[in-house]
Every structure is written in structure tokens, then in C-alpha cells.
Specification:
The chain is of the alpha/beta class. The chain has three domains: 3-130, 2-Layer Sandwich (Gyrase A, domain 2); 136-216 and 398-446, tRNA modification GTPase MnmE domain 2 (Four Helix Bundle (Hemerythrin (Met), subunit A), Up-down Bundle), CATH 1.20.120.430; 226-388, Rossmann fold (3-Layer(aba) Sandwich). Helices cover 46% and strands 17% of the residues. The protein contains 16 helices and 13 strands. The strands form two sheets. Strands 3-4-5-6-2-1-7 form a seven-stranded mixed β-sheet. A hairpin with a 2-residue loop joins strand 9 (265-271) and strand 10. Helix 5 packs across helix 8, helix 6 runs antiparallel to helix 7 (193-215) and helix 6 runs antiparallel to helix 15. It comes from Sumerlaea chitinivorans. Its main location: cytoplasm.
């Protein structure tokens, strides 16, 4: 049996980050949590652990089974089911050195606990009905959130934003399934036309909502995981200078010699609440230099993967912008922002000629000077606008491809059910597809999800969560 599924074990792990720190928390969960605590924790009041009140901090000394003291700590009991996992939980709030944390965990193991696997506490919370699978995934997202937008989205998911929508759709389909089951049990009676019309209307409503949710996957990934913005253009257009300006420090080497950047350089910054990975690339041109050629090919690969491309153009030199656009837009569907750089060195006439070349095109254009930093605010605003578009920070979005796969499968099943109903096929045929749609929505929430999928999801959690 998978060790993670052995709910009879009492598990232990640090619940806080890597030492050193001011404090650390060591967490126990399972049937023997209080029994183990009794063996290694002596409250200053000398009261037996079993008599300590739930959810109250108690000062005491934690020690090994041999009696060797380890640290003066605060202990707290959380009696089932009023705990994170739904089991009896005990926590020891220790001083946050690696030696103390290691010794406390060892003492717990000596007293009968097992070191938890990554994600095992959350898995128990899921198995004990404290949260559904979407909420468990949201908890992982909240722990790893790097930006405020990612934090807000994860919190909405954790509070049931997506789950409640999916459960509502399931309720609608369950009502249809119940009526279909009744007609299957009494085949001599025909399904009334008004009932068929109502079922078709429900199928249509659910399908539309499934499509709307699925279309939000890109937005959800953007908010939770961030975006990849590639800086591209011809050699010596000022790409590395622009990269450094956006990053806020001298991250890339800048020289007046074309072809200085021969490999990609990355740095992640927060723009408008989104984690943006900026990628500085080699200048795009034909070259006989083998190493530079490899860098140019990597630049093209980055352009293919980008959420947004900043096409940097040297405004101080005559340039065919449409020719530059062909370097980055051919066969790609990437969004592009044209950045006219070095405007402090260009005349108004030169800038006018360049902007005239963009007439009739839909690409936004921003004028900047990396020397004076003029135009930086406008560029950041344009990047945010291009990435966020119509994305609402308050909306509920999918955050995993797994979510979208379940919803797409449910939508396909409903389309088959709709066709069967319109063709006046027997209720049994319709019921098969309705049940499939229900199963897919259930899998999204963790109802009937296979152990293999659960293993994959919870193994990505950190130890102690």
C-alpha cells in the first residue's frame, strides 16, 4: 500500500521554512499525536497532555525519550475534527535553528511518529473532507505565489471560487440524471416534450459555462505562473540596455559592438502584480560566426515560446521596421510591442519616419530612452495592457491544464448527450453521456480521482504541508 494512504500512521514534519529563523513549527497529525506529545513534552503546569485544552498555547519543555531536554517551546493541541487535516494535530513552536528542529523531529519519531511525505498533511485534509482537490491545489499555489495577483487568485480558489461553480453545474446535471433515471425505470412512458426542452436548455447552459471557464486557462496561468516577455531585434538596437532598465540593474553586458549578446539572459520582475520573466536575446541577423549563430537560433526559439515580444528598434538610424517585424512575426502568433529605442539620439524627423512605417499595423509602439529612462512608465503600462488585456483580477480562472482537460471532456460528453436527446434516442443513451460529464466534473473536484493522479498532485507539495 502506498505509504501516503496509511491513515493509521501518525506523521511529523517541520511546517515552517528552512532554518535558521526566529521560530519554527513541528507538526504532528494522526491518532497517536497526543500520545506521542505526552512522551516528549512536559508542560510547565505539569498537567497531562490529554487534559490540555484544545487550540490553546501551552509553555513547556520538549525532550527526548531519554529525558535530555531539547528546547523550551509552546505546544498546542487541535482535537479532531477541528484541525487542518481533520485528525488530532499537535504543534510544537520551537526556536528556529536547524539543530533544534532536527532534534524535535527525531524525538517525535523515537516516540512513534513517521516522517511525513511531501504533501501528506494536505492529502489527509483532502481525504478527510476538509477540502476538495481544487482547493488542495490552490493551497500549493498560495504557498508558491510570488505576486499579489497570484496570491489573490490562489486565495479565491482556496475559498471555493472555482469549486462552487463546478458543484453548481454538477447539481444541474444531477437533477437531469435523476429524471432520466426515472424514465429508464418506466420505459412505457414517453418523456414529455417540455421536459426534453428543459434538459436541452440545461445542457446548453452548462456547456456555455464550461467553455467560458476553459477559455480562462491562459489568464489563470498568466496570473499564477507569470508571463515570458522576450526582448528581440537587430544587433546594437539597445536590447540589453532595455533589459537592464526593466530589471532595474546591470544584468546584461552592454557595449557599442554589435553581437555582444550571444546567449539568452533571464531575470524575473513584478510588473502590475504579474511575475514577468524578461529574456534578453542575441541580435537577429545573418552571421558566419558559429557561436553567434547558435545564440540567434536560441533567440528564435524564445520568440516562439514568448507571451509577448518587445521588438527593439534603434530610432537613431534608418530602419525598415516592417523588415524587423518579419524577423519575429513569421509563423508565430505572439503579441508584439514595437519599442523605438535611443529616442534621445534621434531627431523628430527620424522618429516621425519610423512611426509612419507602422501606419496600418495593429502593433502598439512605445518610444523610450534607456539613457534618460524617458518612456519607461509608458512601456511598463503597455506591457501590462498587452499581457492582461481583458483579464479581471477578481474573476475565477483555471490554474492547471488538468482543470481544463476535465472541463473539455465534460463538454464533449454533454455535446453527445445533446445530440442523443435531439435524435430522440432512448434515455439510456443520454444517461451514459450525462454520467460521463458528471464523472469528469467530479474528477476535477477529486471525486473518484485515481491514486496515480493524487500521487502526482500531492508529491509536488513541500514537506510539512
Amino acid at each position: 500500500m502506498n505509504k501516503l494512504l496509511n491513515l493509521d500512521d501518525t506523521i511529523v514534519a517541520p511546517a515552517t521554512g528552512s532554518p535558521p529563523a526566529a521560530i519554527a513549527i513541528v507538526r504532528l497529525s494522526g491518532k497517536k499525536s497526543f500520545e506521542i506529545l505526552e512522551k516528549i513534552f512536559r508542560p510547565r503546569s505539569n498537567r497531562p497532555v490529554a487534559e490540555l485544552p484544545s487550540h490553546r498555547m501551552v509553555l513547556g519543555m520538549v525532550h527526548r525519550l531519554s529525558g535530555e531536554p531539547i528546547d523550551e517551546v509552546l505546544g498546542v493541541l487541535m482535537r479532531a475534527p477541528r484541525s487542518f487535516t481533520g485528525e488530532d494535530v499537535a504543534e510544537l513552536h520551537t526556536h528556529g535553528s536547524a539543530a533544534v528542529v532536527r532534534a524535535v523531529v527525531e524525538a517525535c519519531v523515537e516516540a512513534g511518529a513517521r516522517v511525513a511525505e511531501p504533501g501528506e498533511f494536505t492529502r489527509r485534509a483532502f481525504l478527510n473532507g476538509r477540502m476538495d482537490l481544487v482547493q488542495a491545489e490552490a493551497l500549493a499555489d498560495l504557498i508558491h505565489a510570488q505576486t499579489q495577483q497570484a496570491r489573490r487568485l490562489a486565495l479565491r480558489q482556496l475559498q471555493g471560487g472555482l469549486s462552487s461553480k463546478v458543484m453548481k453545474l454538477r447539481e444541474w446535471l444531477l437533477d437531469v440524471a435523476a429524471e432520466l433515471e426515472a424514465w429508464i425505470d418506466f420505459p412505457e412512458e414517453e418523456i414529455p416534450i417540455p421536459t426534453i426542452a428543459r434538459h436541452l436548455e440545461i445542457f446548453a447552459d452548462v456547456t456555455r459555462e464550461l467553455q467560458r471557464l476553459t477559455q480562462g486557462l491562459r489568464a489563470g496561468l498568466l496570473l499564477s505562473e507569470g508571463a515570458r516577455v522576450v526582448i528581440a531585434g537587430r544587433p546594437n538596437a539597445g536590447k540589453s540596455s532595455l533589459f537592464n532598465m526593466l530589471v532595474g540593474r546591470e544584468r546584461a553586458i552592454v557595449t557599442p559592438h554589435p553581437g555582444t549578446t550571444r546567449d539568452t539572459i533571464e531575470s524575473t520582475v513584478e510588473l502590475g502584480g504579474i511575475a514577468v520573466t524578461l529574456v534578453d536575446t542575441a541580435g537577429l541577423r545573418h552571421t558566419a560566426d558559429e557561436i553567434e549563430g547558435i545564440g540567434i537560433e536560441r533567440a528564435r526559439q524564445e520568440i516562439r515560446l514568448a507571451d509577448l515580444v518587445l521588438l527593439v528598434v534603434d530610432a537613431s538610424h534608418p530602419t525598415n521596421i516592417r523588415g524587423d517585424l518579419e524577423l519575429v512575426e513569421h509563423d508565430y502568433e505572439t503579441k508584439i510591442v514595437v519599442v523605438l529605442n535611443k529616442t534621445d539620439l534621434a531627431s523628430e524627423e527620424q522618429i516621425g519616419e519610423l512611426t509612419a512605417q507602422l501606419q496600418g499595423l495593429t502593433y502598439p509602439c512605445v518610444q523610450v530612452s534607456c539613457n534618460t529612462r524617458e518612456g519607461l512608465e509608458a512601456l511598463v503600462h503597455t506591457i501590462q495592457l498587452q499581457l492582461m488585456g481583458s483579464i479581471s483580477p477578481e474573476e475565477v480562472y483555471l490554474t492547471r491544464e488538468r482543470h481544463a482537460e476535465c472541463l473539455r471532456a465534460a463538454e464533449a460528453a454533454l455535446q453527445r448527450a445533446t445530440h442523443a436527446l435531439k435524435q430522440s434516442l432512448s434515455p439510456e443513451f443520454v444517461m451514459v453521456d450525462v454520467n460521463e460529464a458528471l464523472a469528469q466534473l467530479g474528477e476535477l473536484l477529486g471525486v473518484g480521482t485515481s491514486e496515480e493522479i493524487l500521487d502526482r498532485i500531492f508529491s509536488r507539495f513541500c514537506l510539512g504541508k
